[in-house]
Amino acid sequence: MAPSANGQTVGRRLPVESAFTRVEDARHRLPRLFGRRDLVVLGLGVMIGSGIFSISGVQAANVAGPAVILSFVIAAIVCLLAAACYAELSSTIPVSGSAYTFSYVTFGEMWAWLVGWALVLELVTAAAIVARVWSAYFLATLDGFGVTLPSGIAQFFGPEAEVNLVAPLLLLILTALIVTGTKLSARVLTIVVIAKVAVILLVVVVGAAHVKMENYQPFVPPARAAPAKADPTVLGWLLDSAFGSFGMMGIFTAASTIVFAYIGFDLIATASEDARSPRKTVPQGMLLGLGAVTILYIAMAVVLVGMRPYAKLGGSAPVSEAMAAVGLGWAAKVVNLGALLALMTVIMVVLIAQSRVLFNMGRDGLLPKSLGRVSRVYSSPARAAAAAGIAALVLTLYPKVLELEELLVIGALFCFAFCAVGVLRLRHTEPNLERGFRVPLVPLIPLLSLAATMWLMLNLKTGTWIKFFVWMGIGIAIYGLYGRWHSRLANEDSWDFDLGDTDPGTGGFQAIRADQDRPTELRAIRTPPEQQPQKPTRGKHMRN
Ligand SMILES: NC(=[NH2+])NCCC[C@H](N)C(=O)O
């Protein structure tokens, strides 16, 4: 067995204070600019996207009927429970990297790698899917303004096109922006977020007048048997009951997919290193943002299924199609434009977050070190950003990428589960760390979060699980063959690690307000010396 920095390889953990030191060392010249409001904006910027503008309708039409409203409620509850856990962890370990870093400190390197690997899957599929959905709204917008493309060209634009040209092009442009260090300024993001929220409110207010009560009937359409070769959910497979669609189980099946719409609150934690008083602002930003989104989504779902018979909501731009169907052509155009903007910021924030996760993994030696470098030319984590963009671009070429939304969800739920257990474990192992936010009713809430997360995972399709296992298997192989040996924890002295070099900067985000505080608070909360775990023994490494 290979020796390691603090114990066996598998249990090798990143000491808490070393997580903080990395930030302090690397951060000495970086301002902390984000306040609570900026974090809420960031959260809304990444949460409100293709979930509400596309999946809502599709799930109503094919899986849950008008009861998709309940699916939105269930998904919100699961996400709120998970967000509480994320909030505590990010208030305890306020460094970027989100679930990946939390797991590194809490469970050790191998688990952290798996969580990070799942996060990579989640983010790559997110960018690829949202880019495809963007192409649908792009077509719809052109159409709305009377630009009808000749069908020879339009066939390359549709979200389900064999060869889609718009999505990869969009990813290419956005990646180029991020690689060259273009910041997504908080001001731009704020404007876009206001626009998205306004679009949702418009749909809710204007659409409400066109709601017909009969569209809510039957609220839970009778269960329908699955077509013979349909992929069952894991639960259906375990119980040997081919749950098809609709009926009570349809509500849960749809809820699992609809989690997609809420995901993104976890990414607020990736901005911890840019936030002022992150121990307070990051948890607040997460919970406030998710709360706001929950209200908006449920209101929108109620109106959407009320406007049009559910069976007709399965189009690629269901929200604007519904508006047009009730004669609100002008509103449909506004929705299309709003969705275009909305989806673009989602992709941008996702790519930035992805580049940070890769950057962190590179910095820790679990992926090639070069990913953990800041480009001298662009002062951005250029390699990590390029890798993130290219991966998404390749995936979006796959014509059935829209069917991979469950894959994104399973990746996210996997991280949620780790965070739920992580809260319990860290309370036990590091009871004295300062926690800016504490999950109430421990252990009840984390356990509920874990149970709810696992329940939704069981409602995902067997095919999704198989793909997920394959992906994780590849991950384990990479760790065994590469990460384990190159980990920075295992080779600390051999690292030609130049601190000034490795700072991701604000990694693509830019706040508006002027810098006021210095990150002194991190220093103040370091664990007192007597509680610090043993300093890792340096120099005893696997290759001796
Ligand atoms: N962390 C992520 N995977 N974010 C993707 C967010 C997707 C976003 N909720 C949407 O509806 O489009």
From TrEMBL:
Renumbered residue ranges of the record's region Disordered: 516-544
Organism (species): Kribbella shirazensis
One GO MF term attached to the UniProt entry: amino acid transmembrane transporter activity
A Gene Ontology term for the protein's cellular component: membrane
Entry keywords, A to Z: Membrane, Transmembrane, Transmembrane helix, Transport
Bilayer topology: Multi-pass membrane protein
Cell compartment(s), UniProt: Membrane
Cleaved signal peptide residues: none
Pfam family, one: AA_permease_2
Coiled-coil regions listed in the entry: none
InterPro entries registered for this protein in UniProt: AA/rel_permease1 (IPR002293)
Highest taxon in the source lineage: Bacteria
Name of the protein: APA family basic amino acid/polyamine antiporter
Alphabetized PANTHER family for the sequence: CATIONIC AMINO ACID TRANSPORTER 4 (PTHR43243:SF4), INNER MEMBRANE TRANSPORTER YGJI-RELATED (PTHR43243)
Entry's transmembrane regions: 39-61, 67-89, 110-134, 165-181, 188-211, 242-265, 286-310, 330-353, 382-401, 407-427, 439-458, 464-482
